[in-house]
Amino acid sequence: MKGSLIILSFFVLGLILGLTRFLPTTLLEGNFSIYALYLLMFLVGIGIGTDRDSWKVIKQVNIKIILVPLSVIVGSLIGVSAVSVFLSNINFGEAMAVGAGFGYYSLSSVMITEFHGETLGVIALLSNIIREILTLLATPLFVRYFGKLAGIASGGATAMDTTMPIIVQYSGKEYAIIAVFSGIVLTILVPVIVPLILQFL
Amino acid sequence: MLLDIIIVLSIMILGIGIGLFIGNRPKIIKVVGVLTSFAIFLLLFLLGIGVGTNDKIIKNLHSIGLQALVLTLGAILGSLICAWATYKFFFKTGK
């Protein structure tokens, strides 16, 4: 949660500077956010590669556990497609790209901004932040009505870190490993699925 | 655009390879974590600037927020229903 606030404050700081045009023009004209994205992807890759605990978790997993992130992927994509009917400005594929962020708002919003457009990028940022916040707030309710995987499903990629404590609290310690596994799989898949969907737009 | 996506994914895979090679070195992992945070801060800062200077977005901010909320509710509800089915058929009986 603290991390989200810091990230959001950087966004807001940029927003204010942009609104007031209190900026050197080179910063506006330069297209160096794509290079920053390259750097981020490289670092994210190293992060995944060096994360021995994650690889261990993935190795000791049985078939059944794979169904959890799969449910999140299928459910999220069907869910956003269904509600996109009510949104006149957003088509089917754009909705799926936003949904495929699975709560990983920093990476999904940046990728969508670079590869599709700023408006959808902002929608992805807000939507995926709301996903994390709602998970933190409503997991007790979700677990009561949708079973013990509910918090993990709602949290998506965040189930491995920011929303994990609340998931464990309401589903039990035995669900911690499933939460971490599902979160890791989704985190790794976000940079693959989001561009894949955008490719077909 | 396809080229950009291929470049981005290749860079990530390169990173994973290097990460696997580096292995368990807490100091490097820590530095990479800090740098990752800074890269995210920078990108979101730049996105903020892009949004702030984009009148089309600023004028429609309330509608953008609403669209984001609707998409989130769809994504969460869809996930919850699928996870409920998975729990009922594969997890609950096993316990």
TrEMBL record, chain A:
Keyword Manganese assigned: no
Lineage, top ranks: Bacteria, Pseudomonadati, Bacteroidota, Bacteroidia, Marinilabiliales
Transmembrane segments: 32-49, 61-80, 175-198
GO CC annotations on file: plasma membrane
Keywords: Membrane, Transmembrane, Transmembrane helix
Alphabetical list of InterPro entries matching this protein: LysO
MF terms (GO), sorted A to Z: L-lysine efflux transmembrane transporter activity
Domain of life: Bacteria
Protein name as annotated: Lysine exporter LysO family protein
